[in-house]
Amino acid sequence: MSSANTSADRLARLLNLVPYLLARPGIELVEAAGDLGVSERQLREDLELLWVCGLPGYGPGDLIDMSFDGDRVTITYDAGIDRPLRLTPDEATALVVALRMLAETPGVADRDAIHRALTKIEQAAGEIDAPVAVRLPGNDDRLADLRAALERGNALRLSYYSAARDVSSERVVDPMRLLSVSGRSYLEAWCRSAGAVRMFRVDRIDALTELDEPATPPAEAQSGDVAEGVFQPDPDSPTVTLRVGRGGRWITEYYPCESVVEVTPEEWLVSLRVNDLDWARRLVLGLGPQVVVVAPAELAEAVRDSALEALAAYA
């Protein structure tokens, strides 16, 4: 039943359900459930969802309607779902842009299917006046090289800039997948020097060399869940508490926070976990007078020492 409840499976089933029922008025629910490969309970839940689907306006005469006679169901109003879809020029353009963006997204498996659908829509939407060009942010050459290495299954040597430590390093990685999150492209790979799975932003890969050896991520190398963002704080990482002014509140939207408390209308008390206190030191220095370190004391001392060094350089 788990597969029947996935969003993709349910959407496909709902799209097929109306024409199926239209062709079989008065069909028994148990028979329909058997044909569709779901339980009778799941079919009833699908029918309840169909009742709130329909045309914009979503009032009487807009929504799909049906009647029940015991355990038999008949569609009485299909909301036009049996008619071929006619796209306006704006709708066709939006769909073309979305498909081209999907075709550019790293990690997409069946690009041929996307391109076939795109070709059909472009041929049908002759009203589109101007060509549409879509490119994901990042280095196109890098993405092409990474995609090719993934297809060949080879390991890579990367020269990579780490913003957290403000250093560049070389490392050998075993690529696992390419993905796009929040408009940025990433390589997920097993990093041999770290002995763990790491995410590498494609635009921070300064150079790469494909090695003449297969990529061999160990069994414990598991792809991470990026539904909540690429980088999630480690529960064992140290917590940093900052008193933030109005001009520094943007960090609460940019970084995952443990807590945000309004102390006064002008000041918030913000707690967040960091993997590297040196990164936190640079963050605080960059915010300047908009932030005061409350804890830990080690971070406060590091910020003070860096500020004193900077002042001494000007003396």
From TrEMBL:
Chain ranges of the PafC HTH domain: 9-122
Top-level taxon in the UniProt lineage: Bacteria
InterPro entries: CBASS_pafABC_assoc_protein (IPR051534), PafC-like (IPR028349), PafC_HTH (IPR043839), WCX_dom (IPR057727), WYL_dom (IPR026881)
WCX domain span: 239-311
Region (Disordered): 212-232
Domain WYL, first and last residues per copy: 143-209
PANTHER family reported in the protein's UniProt record: PROTEIN PAFC, PTHR34580
Identification of the protein by name: Protein pafC
